[in-house]
Amino acid sequence: MFWFLNDSMFDPGNNNYIINPSAYKANFEPYGKSYFKHPTGRFSDGRLVPDFIAEFANLPMIPSFYQALHNHSINHGVNFASAGAGCLDETYSEKVISLNTQLGNFKIIRRKLKAQLGKKGSRALLSNAVYLFSIGNNDYLRLYDIPDIPSDMTCLAYTTEHEYMNIVMDSLVTVMMEIYKFGGRKFGIQDLLPLGCLPRFRGLALLKEGPHSDCLDELNSIVKKHNLALSRRLKQFKKELRGFEYSFFSIFDTLNELFENPSTYGFKEAKAACCGFGPYRGFGSCGMAEAYELCKNVKEHVIFDSYHPTEKAFHHFARVWWQGNSNAVESQSLKSLLA
Fold it and tell me: What are the boundaries of the signal sequence (predicted)?
C-alpha cells in the first residue's frame, strides 16, 4: 500500500477539483498525449513516478484522493499530491492543496479505513504501508520565479536563507511525525530537483547573465543545502525513532546525470523542454500560450514543459528508486522498503 503526499511531480489530477480558476492544472492538451492520449491532470506527456512504482509492485494505478472519495478502491493506497504545493501553507496558497491539507485528507481516508477494518486492522495496514514524499520544490521556486530575479537572497527579507530552509524542513517533518504517530513506519523521500537547471531557469539565467550562463546557480545552491539537511534528518530519525525505515532518492543527482549524459540513457535533448516557447522552451505555460511550440519526438527529451520531466524520464527515476542499485538511493531500495 502506498500513500503519496506531494507536489506536481506526483499529482495524478487532484488539482482538477480545485474551484479557483487560477489553480495549477494540466487538464488540457498536450498533457497526457503519449500514454493516456488525453489530459488527466498529470504535468507530463504521460505517467509519473507513482504510476510506475505501482506497476513495479504489481498494483493498479493508485487513485487520487478525489477518486478515493467517490467509491474508488483504496485497498492499495491513495495519492493526495497537488501541483504547486509546498511544505509551507503560504506557498501558492488558494491555488493548491497544501501539505497540511493533504495530511487532513489522509486523516479522512484513515477514518474510512478504521470504519471498515476496525482500529487494530487499520493500524496494521497503515504501519505496513509506504508513505512517499516529494515536496519542497515550490517553497524555493516561489522565491525566484518572478520577472526580475534578485541576485541575492533579499527576497527573504523576513528571515535568513538558513532560517527559511529550517522553516520549510520543520513543516515537512511535522507532517511526517504526525503520520508516524498514526502508525506509519516506512517512508520514501525524494529530494528536490536541480531547479536552477530546469528550462524555465536556464532561460532566466540566459536573460540575466548572458550566453555564457547555463543554470541558475544561486537557486541550485539553496536546493543542495536543503537536500543535504534532509538526508541528515532522515539518518537522525533512523537512529532515534523506533521502527522508522526509509528510502531516500536523490532526483537531484539522477536528473543531473541525465542533463550531463543524455545519450547514455537514450535521450537526445536534455536542456530544452518539449513544450513551451522562448529560450529552452522555458517560458509560458505548455498548451496555454498561443505561441507555444511542441517537439516532434517527446521520447528524445528529458523535460516536457518548463518544469516537469517527460514520461520516459519519470520511468527512469522510478526504476532507479525501486531497484536501489545506485548512489542516488540511500538506506535501501523502495522495493525492499515495501517488502
Answer: none
Please answer whether residues 3 and 129 qualify as being in contact, where contact means their C-beta atoms are separated by less than 8 angstroms. Answer: yes
Cβ atoms 286, 21 nearer than 8 A: no
**How many domains are contained in the chain?**
1
Alpha-carbon separation of residue 17 from 24, 82, 94, 107, 141 (angstroms)? 11, 10, 12, 19, 23
DSSP string, 277-322: BSGGG-BS-TTTSTT-EE-S-GGGBSBSSSS-B-HHHHHHHHHHHH
Q: Integer distance in angstroms from the first to the last C-alpha of the chain? A: 11
Active site residues: 8, 305, 308
pLDDT reported for residue 152: 40
Instruction: Quote the DSSP letter at residue 248.
Output: E
Encode pLDDT of 129-171 as tens digits: 999 999 999 999 988 865 433 434 444 555 788 999 999 999 9
Domain of 163, in residue numbers: 2-267+314-327
pLDDT digits (tens, 9 = 90+) for 224-246: 999 999 999 999 999 999 999 99
Is 92 within the bounds of a domain? yes
Contact by Cβ (8 Å): 331, 234: yes
Residue 166 carries which side chain, given as an amino acid letter? N
Residues in the chain where the model's pLDDT stays below 70 = 145-158, 289
CATH value at residue 15: 3.40.50.1110
Amino acid identity for residue 18 in this structure: I
Residue 272 lies in a domain: no
- Give Cβ neighbours of residue 126 (< 8 Å, ≥ 6 apart): 110, 113, 182, 183, 184
